[in-house]
Amino acid sequence: MTTVQSPPVPPTAIRPKVVARTGLYAVLAANAAVVTLFAVQAGFASNALVVIGRFAGLYAALLMAFQLLLVARLPWLDRRIGMDRLTNWHRWTGFGLLWTLVGHVVFITFGYARSSSMDPVSQLVDLAETVEGVFRAVVALGLILVIGGVSARWARRRLAYETWHFIHLYAYVAVVLAFTHQVAAGTTFTTSSAATTYWYTLWGVALGSVLLGRLGLPLWRNWRHQLRVEAVVPESDNVVSVYITGRDLDRLPARAGQFFLWRFLTKDRWWQANPFSLSAAPDGRTLRLTAKAAGDGSAGLRHLKPGTRVFAEGPYGAFTAMHRTRPEAVLVAGGVGVTPIRALLEELHGHAVVIYRVGSDRDAVLYDELRDLAHLKGAELHLVTGPPVPDRLAPGELLRLVPDIADRDVFLCGPPPMMNAVLGSLRALDVPRTQIHFERFSLAG
């Protein structure tokens, strides 16, 4: 298997994550300034509450477009920031959007009620009945309130992912309704051709990004690469590796540490997509995923037949050597989280220490491969076994295994409790945050 070694990162190089994050902030700030300029040029209503409400509505529209960009899964952003962080930003931006929209409705309603001497409820009903687009805006707000409610942590814990995802799809309906309300009733659309052009361009870019990243690019890549199952290899009683082949895989921009959303096109599985990391560095000929049976989706992999067509979305994730800041690394894996770690070890350049945390020796998936690869690469490999308590990766133990850990990049993947414990240990050892790399592989709607 041939892989491309990742070159050492110059100490003065600007981190890709910083570039992307700064770019997103700059885009949002620049658009906020443009929105403010057009709003000022449109003039102010005599009622201060209406003025505040209009500004809240304009900023809400901007946040809604920004929301679409965050979940568009554009490769440039995803490789530099990662789907999990983009998902987290999307979530918090969503709560900001929710309160901004509520403020828009409240201030507008109370502002017009003050001028008309109607009570706020009657005023809102009157606006919905007499002003074009207002009723659509009320429906959009109702949808966003529902989506915001099911996105709260207490609700997410009680809902199946499929249920939450189905409800979340109504956000696109809310976007369309809000846009048509803005076109019909927004002051900037009726008073300035430049502002009208700006808003159409903004929404066109936002919606176009979603169509490109979520639909166009996956369709193009799957048509081009024609992915199929080449082999299914059991690794243990409950772990299986699936080898995928196809056309021109050397042109698929996948890297060790990334994952795909895999959809195996059989009668009983075509509708189900599951995220699995690559368990070997891409070599231009095959892709490999390794999964532990944790549900119907992963358990069914064992029964796939060679030749089965595959539809894959990705590659996704920033858990790659692109983000290295030091010439040497520590790779910490827990359980089946070893899959991206094993792939990363294959690609990484420079000395590495691998720490593999499992309950017992028989839980060490791909351990023989990892041991042979570590020997080939000149890396150190430590298999740490035992129950979760006491913590086998406490600060003192990590320092014993890797005395210079604060001078290395740390790549971490495993079950959430184990990851949280290791992150706490790294903080206690004063490992700089810029040297700690991990992803939680959460998905956005």
Please name the defining characteristics of this protein:
Rossmann fold, 3 domains, membrane, 445 residues, FAD-bd_FR_type, 5-stranded parallel sheet, FAD, alpha/beta, 3-stranded antiparallel sheet, Elongation Factor Tu (Ef-tu), domain 3, elongated
Q: Total domains, how many?
A: 3
Cα-based radius of gyration, to the nearest Å: 25 Å
Q: What is the average per-residue confidence, as pLDDT, rounded to a whole number?
A: 88
Strand order of the largest sheet: 9-8-7-10-11
Shape field: elongated
Biggest sheet layout: 5 strands, parallel
The run of helices and strands is: HHHHHHHHHHHEEEEEHEEHEHEHEHE
User: Which structural class do the helices and strands define?
Assistant: alpha/beta
Number of DSSP-assigned strands = 11
Percentage beta strand: 5-15%
Distance between the termini: 36 Å
Keywords: 2Fe-2S, FAD, Flavoprotein, Iron, Iron-sulfur, Membrane, Metal-binding, Oxidoreductase, Transmembrane, Transmembrane helix
Main location: membrane
Domain FAD-binding FR-type: 222-322
Transmembrane segments: 24-45, 51-71, 92-113, 133-155, 167-185, 197-217
